[in-house]
Each structure stands twice: as structure tokens, then as C-alpha cells.
Amino acid sequence: MATETLSANLAGVLGPILGSATEIDNLRALTGGASRTTWAFDAVTGSQRRALILRTGPPDDVHAGMELEAAVQKAAAAAGAPVPDVLIASDSVETLGNPFLICGEIAGETIVRRIQRQLDDDGRATLLRQCAQALAAIHRAAPDAPGLAKQDDLVEWRQRLDEMADTTATFEWAFRWLTEHRPPASPLHLVHGDFRMGNLIVDGSDLAAVLDWELVHIGEIYEDLAWFCIRAWRFGAPAGMAAGGLGSIDDFVAAYEDAGGATVDRAALRWWLVVATLRWGVICRFQAERHLSGQTRSVELAAIGRRVCETEWDLLDLLEGAS
């Protein structure tokens, strides 16, 4: 859709909310990801100027619909998690050509390398604690939004790998170990699905907002806890700062429990760390397949595919000495 047409359509969408005289200014694309495109713009109504964000993308069977994203963000906010203020969300393709969500713009940084450079030890400790508090709030949120589905990570990623008809010996060993050592199921909660550095807005050393709710579902709290702590999301920080590159896993878990999160079984968390690492490995292999198959020729996807061997190393490290 041309920028001029999108601006006019946005004005029509926001008119009933902000006022019929609303105009769109400074519309610009921020990202063009695989599933969502993000735009920033100003909505001008008389003397009032409001900085807003538009997220839009085609519907699919993998990602949550925009209306579901809006509903779970509202529930998470009610539980105390920092999230953008959603003005409107729609799964309709009629108005903007694709489902969309419009929310307030939040000041801060999402690029992890820049965040790391601006943090000292106290700042990292503060941000780690706030991440734990946000995650505990998300897990307290009511998991009753229409369309929320239960997901079993182990089943999900086994199926994804099988669909590619490709595997590695390390992946197969990890799947076998996980199947044989699965801990008892824990209570189900709202799960963000992609809670990690890079999907958080950080203002100084403060967590300003949790973004990217497209993988939200119902599951066990360990999914989010473990995903935050795999090597890929510490962006080069040493192993002693495995929790998002901010601090230790023990400190992160302690802060989560102190914030009202459920008591964390450390042995179960280790099992979920293997799941999370294996999940990243399968994702890397899937991204490589998109390039190799010719579906989406991309140096970036090919480079992500080269990281399969890194996840194999991490799995071997996690499973060292395992029976």
C-alpha cells in the first residue's frame, strides 16, 4: 500500500477515536520482519500531536491475531506488566490491507548492544530485576482472552523439525533425552512466547515496555524463564550473565519469585533450558531452509542457518554428563 493511501486510511481508522479532524504526519517504516511490519507516525488532531506505532502483517496459522495481541496486552497491563497502550486492533484486512494494531510510541532502546553499552553493574541489576517483575506479572495475567491456545513446546518443535525432513544427531539426542526426562507438568499460565532482550524497550536502566506478543499462548512459566536465559539472547555477554546478558540465572529466578512469580523448580528449569536451546536450533535450521529452498533468498537467513552448529554445542554442553 502506498504511503499516501496508508496515511489516509490511518486517519479514517483513528478519526472516531481521536477526532474527525485527525491527520497523519511523518509516517515512516521502521522494520519489515518476516511476520510483522512496524511503522511510526504522528496523529495530529488540532493542536494535539500524538506519537503512535502501527504494526501490520498478513494473517497466518503461527502468529497470534492482532485482536488477541491487544487483549493479552491489556490483561498483562492489568497484572502490572509494562506494555504499550493499544488504541485499536483489528483482524480485518479491509481497512489497511492486513490485520493491524495501533499503540502509543514508547521512548527507549531495543537494540541490545546499545543497551549493554549504557549499563553499569547497578543498571544491569536493576534491569534484570524489572524483567523478572514484568515476567511474573505476565504469568499472573488472566489467560482467558478469546483465541488463546495451549502449546506444548516439545511437540511443537519436534513437528517443525520433522516437516523439514532434516535433522542432526545432536538434535535427535536432545529430543530423546527430553522425552525420557520430562518433569511433571506445572500449572498453566499466560506465556509471552518470545520474552527476551531485543523484544524489550529499555529507557536508561529501566524496562519501559514488553513488545512482540505474536507468539503468546497458554503454557508453563518455564517456557518464558528458560527462553530469556539461552546463550543467543545474552548477545555476547559471559556465561555468568546468562539471564539476558544482565545477571545470573539464579538472580533472575530469585527476583522472579520475589516479584510474586510461582516457585521455580531448578531441575525443571534445566530441562526447559534444553528445550529452549533446541527450539532456537530448530528455528535456525528453519531459517536456513527458507534460503536454501529458494523461498526467500537472503544472506541474513543463510547466516542464521550457520548458527545451527552453535546450538548443537550449547546442547552438548547442557547435556554433558546426562544419563
UniProtKB/TrEMBL annotation:
InterPro entries with a match to the protein in the record: ACAD10_11_N, AGP_Transferase, Aminoglycoside_PTrfase, Kinase-like_dom_sf
Gene3D superfamilies: 3.90.1200.10, Phosphorylase Kinase, domain 1 (3.30.200.20)
UniProt organism field: Mycolicibacterium sphagni
Organism phylogeny: Bacteria, Bacillati, Actinomycetota, Actinomycetes, Mycobacteriales
Domain Aminoglycoside phosphotransferase: 27-271
Name of the protein described by the UniProt record: Phosphotransferase family protein
Domain of life: Bacteria
Matches recorded under Pfam families: APH
